[in-house]
Design a protein that fits this description.
Helices cover 38% and strands 20% of the residues. By secondary structure, it is α/β, with parallel strands linked by helices. It has one domain: Divalent-metal-dependent TIM barrel enzymes (TIM Barrel). A hairpin with a 4-residue loop joins strand 8 and strand 9. Helix 3 packs parallel to helix 4, helix 4 crosses helix 5 and helix 7 packs parallel to helix 8. The termini are close together.
Length: 296
């Protein structure tokens, strides 16, 4: 684990959950100061939006990354290939394929050879099998278009379709494109109650990236007056410093590395943190992650 490239995800300092917000330039400097070797850049506002970065700004960002010594960089795309299925006349898949191709060009321009994408949220307007087929076709086309630009797509197990690790592996094998790789995340299988070591062992040969954060479960209850008692509901998942949560990252990383994984590890703070969203608390979480991964 100590030798894997460590990245900091810019969503952590985006203000998206009311936490401290930095510009993309400030974030790059922050990541370098916290001893990260690369960054995962949120490909939407307020950071790296396609609408805001022309050729000149792309050159400036590439130079800034190089000057900061950040060499292992990833773009974080935001896709949902099953979006708006109730309106078949709208070419949503074409729009998203075009978006992914544009991100691949952006990645090539700034020196980020990996673009993270998602599958799709399950939609009531179509059978599951039809949504699976749609996603396979879209991923295949995206991969081929990105390959022409020298960029690798990294699929993260986040959205509903293929979120289970066995299905996720099945999907990647079915797409069967050499530059569509796994960005396998331990968070989802941990919440599912799966064996993280088994999942990591199975996915490691397909992985080039993983994104991590740690959480604790907090029980929730709803008062039921007729019973004069509380009814349990779905627990709340609270972000905590890395290594203090329920996700067994040691087993996950040991299994992945033993199975040959050598890719990057991106740390993200993508929900409200225990302790609040001040810049000092964000920095503390990020430094805790680096220390844990480096064994210190």
């Amino acid at each position: 684990m100590s030798t894997l490239p460590l990245l900091l995800h810019s969503v952590s300092y985006s203000g998206s959950w009311g936490q401290a917000a930095l510009s993309i330039e400030q974030f790059v400097d922050k990541a370098a100061s916290l001893e990260f070797g690369g960054v995962m850049l949120m490909a939407k506002r307020p950071h790296l939006s396609l609408l805001d970065f022309d050729a000149a700004r792309r050159r400036q960002l590439r130079d800034h990354l190089a000057a900061a010594g950040l060499t292992h960089n990833v773009l974080a795309g935001y896709t949902n290939f099953t979006a708006d299925l109730e309106h078949a006349e709208i070419p949503q898949r074409e729009m998203q394929i075009h978006y992914v191709e544009a991100l691949a060009q952006l990645g090539a321009d700034i020196g980020a050879p990996y673009v993270r994408i998602f599958t799709g949220y399950e939609h009531p307007a179509a059978p599951f099998s039809a949504q699976w087929r749609m996603i396979v076709d879209a991923l295949r086309e995206c991969a081929r278009r990105a390959a022409a630009l020298g960029v690798t797509l990294v699929l993260q197990n986040h959205h509903d379709v293929a979120v289970g690790w066995e299905s996720f592996r099945d999907l990647l094998i079915e797409v069967n494109e050499p530059n569509l790789k796994a960005g396998f995340d331990a968070w989802a299988p941990a919440l599912h109650g799966d064996d993280l070591a088994a999942a990591a062992t199975a996915l490691a040969p397909l992985m080039v990236h993983t994104t991590v954060a740690d959480y604790v479960r907090r029980p929730r209850h709803r008062y039921e007056p007729s019973l004069v008692n509380y009814v349990p509901t779905t627990p709340f998942v609270q972000a905590v410093p890395f290594g203090e949560g329920f996700i067994d990252y040691r087993s996950f990383f040991d299994a992945a590395v033993n199975a040959g994984y050598t890719g990057g590890v991106a740390y993200e703070m993508c929900s409200p943190l225990l302790g609040g969203g001040s810049e000092d608390n964000l920095d503390r979480y990020a430094q805790t992650f680096v220390n844990w991964m480096r064994g210190r």
